[in-house]
Each structure stands twice: as structure tokens, then as C-alpha cells.
Amino acid sequence: MRTIVTAKSRGRAEAAEEMADRTYIHGYSSEEQQRLIEQAHYWHELLTLGDLNYRQGESLLEIGCAAGATLGVLGTAFAGLRLAGIDLEARQIDFARQHLASLGLLDVDLRVADARQLPWSEWAFDHVYIMWLLEHVDEADGEAILRRAFRVLKPGGTITVTEPDYTAIRIYPESEDYEYLHQALLDLFRWNGNAIAGRILGALLVAVGFEEVRSAALGFHFFTQAGDHGLRRHIDYLSRFIEPAIPQMLAFLGRDEARLRKGLEFFRSVPDQPRGSLTQVVYRARAKRPPVASV
After folding, report:
1. What is the phi/psi pair of residue 63, to 5°?
2. What is the gyration radius of the CA atoms in the chain, in angstroms?
3. For the whole prediction, is pTM greater than 0.85?
4. CA 280 to CA 164: how far, in whole Å?
């Protein structure tokens, strides 16, 4: 049989090849895995736990669990929660098993698979948790992941999703070098993800079929003041997030390394400025799968 390659099929093939070349922008080194552990602990009070009220015996799936950092926070905070996690990268799951075991969380169902094809049956979980995942996929894939999440949730089950808006990372004083770095970060996520994933969370959850959807923009603002090291801690946290992405800014965007490094240097100097400040916006959405209609 002769295969006819149409413009449409050729476009899909090219898109598949392009996606195969794309990788998680921070890589899978041991340093990155440790950064994820530290990141989860940094956010656990500010954001991760939030208003969650999981109960003993309930089941929770984290989609995109990576190194198991957030699962570790959730499993420690909510004793008796039955945990599961999925990630596309086997190295992350291997690390997650070790990390969770070190916390005494031994009976965790961890799997290597595509989040768009979850290997669990319908109605398998009471809760789904997603954090810092949809920023790494495009809008269509983000919707596909949420549809799969809807499928594995029990009727009345909850989903909690936390994602950023990278356009809203602002600093004072302003700097052309930092703006160059910031724009490169946005372009990298636009090429390999979704820089504004948080903005569309509520609408995506509604489109998928969730009910009681709530989505809030949470602002975090830090500024220079005596005795308060919040600004420096957050600048250090974001610097450790941004710096590992610079090699991809060079390789895939063709940016100037010297300017990127100068931008990062200025960013790190913000806590030393007499009126230094930083603002970041993160979106957190919660929703429920509708109950089964009574007959």
C-alpha cells in the first residue's frame, strides 16, 4: 500500500519530531532532583498545602510527580493518605522511590507513563494533584492531561492544580539585562511549554467538565526591609530555577550568554538594592468531578 503524505500529516510528523527533541528544561541531574526537593519544602507552607483537607484512607494521584518531592510533602502532612504518582521520565520515578522511602512512605504506586494516557481505571482516585506540570506542555496537551485526570477521579473527587504566570515576575530596580533574561525565559516556555499556564486553569477545568471550579491568582511580593530575608530567599529560589535553563536558551533560542549571565547577576543583586523588590503571581485552581446523576 502506498502511503500518501499530505500537508496535514507531514505537519503532524514534523510536530512529533520536534516534540521528541524537546526535554524538561531543567534536565534530570541529581542536582536538579535535589532542587525539586528543596523547592517543595520552600513552597509547602506558602502554597502546596493551602486549604487542603485530605482524610486518612483516601487516595491521591499526583500527575507529573517528578522526583516525588510534592508527594513527600503531602504524604507527611496527611497521614494515611494512599499515594500514587506518574512521570514520563524513569530517572525521576527511580529517585522518587528512594526519596519517599526515606520519609517512611513505602507503599506508593509510582509509574512511568505519559500523563495523557494514565494507566489507571476510571474512578480510581479520590483526589488528583498537579503542580508545576502544565507549564511544561502546550495548551492542547494541558487539556488532554486534565481530561485524563477527570476520568480517573471518583464522582465528587477533587482536583487541585497550581501553575505560574511567568510574565508576572517583576523586579525593582528595573534592568535591561534582566529584561533580556526574562524575555528569554518566556520564549523558552513558549517554545517548550506554556509561560502563562496559570491564567487558563479555570477555563480549562470548566471545558473538561469539572464543577465548582475556583481559580485564584496568588500574589507574592517581597521587598527590602531590616530583619526580613524573604526577598533574598525568593531571589535565591528563582535563581536556582532560572540558571539551569540558560543552556537551552543558548541552544534553542540563540541568545547571547554574556547578556543572560549579566541579567542573572543583576537579578541576584536585587536584595542588595536599598528599595529592591520582587513580585510573582501563581494561580491555584480547585474543582470537583460531578457526582453520578441518580436514576
Report:
1. -90, 125
2. 20
3. yes
4. 8
* CA 234 remoteness from chain centre: 17
Report the alpha-carbon distance of residue 290 to residue 28 in Å, rounded: 37
Read off the pLDDT of residues 155-165 as tens digits, 9 standing for 90 and up.
Answer: 999 999 999 99
d(CA 260, CA 36): 23
Q: What sign does the CA torsion over 249, 255, 257, 259 have?
A: negative
Q: Which helix (H) or strand (E) holds 212?
A: strand 211-223
Cis peptide before 173 (omega within 30 of 0): yes
Nearest by Cα to 66 from 39, 41, 31, 91? 91
Q: Tens digit of pLDDT for each residue in 130-175?
A: 999 999 999 999 999 999 999 999 999 999 999 999 999 999 999 9
Q: What is the pLDDT of residues 23-44, one digit of tens each?
A: 555 556 677 777 767 777 787 7
Q: Would you state the cell numbers that stand for residue 56, as one nine-digit string?
A: 486518612
Question: Alpha-carbon distance 295 to 286, whole Å?
Answer: 28
The answer to whether 230 and 274 have CB atoms below 8 angstroms apart is: no
Cell numbers found for residue 70: 510534592
> Nearest-CA neighbor of 156 among 13, 258, 70, 58?
58
